[in-house]
Amino acid sequence: MKPPDEHISGIATVIPYYIIAPLCFVIFQALLVVSVPDIHLHYFQPKLLALTHLFVLGWATLMIFGASNQLVPVIAEARLYSKAIPVWCLVCLIAGVPLLVWSFWAFQFTWITYTGAALILIAIILHAYNIYKSITGGKSSIITDIMLMAHAWLFITGTIGLLLLINLVYPLFPEEHLHYLKIHAPIGMAGWFLQLIIGVSARLVPMFILSRKEYANLLNITFYTLNAGLALFLIEGMIFRSFYGRYMYLLLIIIGLVAYGLYIRGCYKSALRKQKDAGMRQTFIAIAFVLVAIIMLLLAMWSGTGMQPRISTAFGFAFFGGLVSIIIMGQTFKTLPFIVWMHITKPNTLPELMPKDLFKEHWVNLQLWVYLPGLLFLLAGLICQQQILLYTGSVLMLVASIIYATHTGYVVAQLKNKQR
Prior knowledge:
By secondary structure, the chain is mainly α.
C-alpha cells in the first residue's frame, strides 16, 4: 500500500545514495582484492584502516543515510523535516570520504585528512539533526527511540574518530592510541550499526512477513541493556582508562541481542507469510552472522597474542561483511523497488506495475550465492592465514558486488524509463 504523499521523500533525498553507495561497495571489494597480501597482518595498518573507513562511510553509512531518509517518515508517520539537508550530507560525504580514505591508504595525515574528517562529521551532524526533527515531528515508539540513540552513538563515534586523527599528529590523549581505537570501533559497530539494524529490522521484518503480533517489551529490554553496556564501556574507557568491566558490558549487550532475537522469533511465529523471498532470506542469514561475530569476539578476547590480531580482523569482517553487507544487499531489493514504485505510480490511478515487477529475484539469489561462499573463504583465509583462500574469497565478493551494483542501477533506471 502506498503511504500518504507527505510521507514520500523527494527523489533527490534518497535515490542518489542508492546510486553512489553501491559504487563505493564495488571499489571497496576491488581494493580488498589488491590488499590481500596485507589484510592478514595486524589490524592497525594503513590499507586495512583505509578499507574499513571506505566500507563504513562510503558504502554502509551512505546507504543507511539514503534509506533512512525514506524509512524514517514511514516509521514515524511524518514528513522528512528537510529535503535540502540530505543533498548537503551527500555532498559532504562525497567530498570527505575519498580524502580520509586516501590519507589512511598513504598513511599521511595533513590538512587533507582533517578536511575530509570534518566534512564527514558535518554530514553526520546534519543527517542526525534531520532525523531527529523528523521523528520528533511524528509518532514516537520504542523503534524511533532506538533509531535516535543509534544516531547519537554515530555522532560520538565520529567525534572520537576526529580526535584520534588529531592525536596521531598532535597528542591529545594520556593513553596510547590503540586504547582509544578499542573504544572508537566497538561503539561504532554496536552503537551505530547494530542498533540501527535492530531498529529498522524491528519495523520492516514484521511488515514484510505480515506478523500478527509484535513484542515491544522485548525491544525495550534490547534498548536499555544495549545502551547501558555501551555507556558503561565508554565511561570506563575514556574516564578511567581501563576495560576491567568489559565482560559485564558484553553480557549486557548479549542480553539485549537475545531479547531482539526473541522478538524476531515471535514475529516469525505469528507471521501470515512464512515463505521467505530472496530479500528476507538474506536478512535472516545476516542476523545469524551476529552469533558468528560474537563467537569470534569471544575467541579474540580469550586467545593468545599470536592468534588475537588475526581473529580480531576476522571478527571485523564477520560483522561488517556478514551482518552489515548482507542485510543491506538483501533489504535494498525490499526497499528500493518500493521507493521507485511510489514515484512512478500516479495518484488516483490503478498501478500498472507493482514493486516486485521492478527487480529480478533470481539476481538477488545469485548475489547471495556468490557473496556468501566468498565471505566464508575470506574468514577461513584470515584465521588460517592462507592467501589462496583470501584471494578466492575476495574475488567472489567482488563479483557479487558487481552483480549487486548492476541490479541496483537496473532498478533505479526503471524510475526514468517509467516516467517517460
